[in-house]
Amino acid sequence: MQAKHIAVGALALTLALAAAGCSSRPAGQEKEGTAGADMGNMDMGGNKDMQGMDMGGGEDMQGMEMGGHNERTYDVPADAPRMEVSMKNMRFNPSEFKIKAGEPVRFAVRNDDSVAHDFMLTGENGFDTGLLQPGETKEIGWIPEKPGTYEAFCSQPGHKDLGMTAKIVVE
User: Fold this and answer.
1) Could you list the residue range(s) of the whole structural domain that residue 161 is in?
2) Other C-beta atoms within 10 Å of 29: how many?
3) What is the Cα–Cα distance from 170 to 147, expressed in whole angstroms?
4) pLDDT score recorded for residue 69
């Protein structure tokens, strides 16, 4: 059983390295355009699609979410001001919001892009839409507690670094 867990761990590491473009060949010996892609002869124990593969806790990898997080929202009145947010091309539109401290708001967040995004603010008084797939819309409530300038962002790897941020000024 321990050998099976080691094999599964090695497979997961190999797949992660391949996805990152790493190769098992010594430097300079990669086949052109195939770094990390030559996994055709890899022994997967007869299980070619990883469905039903034992991950130690009995769960399988089918439908497994890589990364991600849970929605975090606040209960706000239905008549709270509604602010529409579009996510596209590694940007939020609008990219700046002005809100009064203690007053509830609703963010109607729409993913107009071809890749998944989220809209979140970390911290004790933060919020999070959860991951929105292309074409998906979600409305979340928020009640800003303290005045200040905050940065909302997309937490998907690399998106914040590419400028997917929004400034929230709480007065």
Assistant:
1) 82-170
2) 7
3) 5
4) 57
